Amino acid sequence: NLSESFVTVQHALCKSVNHLLHQCLQEQFPQLAQVEIDAMARQWMQTGVPLLESENIVRHMYNEKDSERVLEQVHELPLGFHSAQEGDGSDSLQLVRHRDLVKVLLSFQMQRTEEVLGEFVGFFREVDADDD
What pTM was estimated for this model as a whole? Predict the structure, then answer.
């Protein structure tokens, strides 16, 4: 059973992912104006987030152990591909659909919340001598 405040956690997680997408773009393209960064972020949300940036977001949001668990799920997602420059034979860029990335993160966050709450309930039952 999830906490009533999990809706707030969901909202914060989605906001964090979008903020980190913007941050990735600003670091990659410091010469671009904010309006251009915003447009690129919207494009990533529609066409897919590069796999490398998806991995960086996960590693930024979670500790090493949890990141490994989440990245296993991210790597199981179906990937899209986008040629860096159409027709020139260059390597394709692997893309993760934004909604799939967010879904994996939300699912993991829900699972972690349930694990923590389960541990708490177990501890409570240990100290609740009269079972009330």
Answer: 0.76
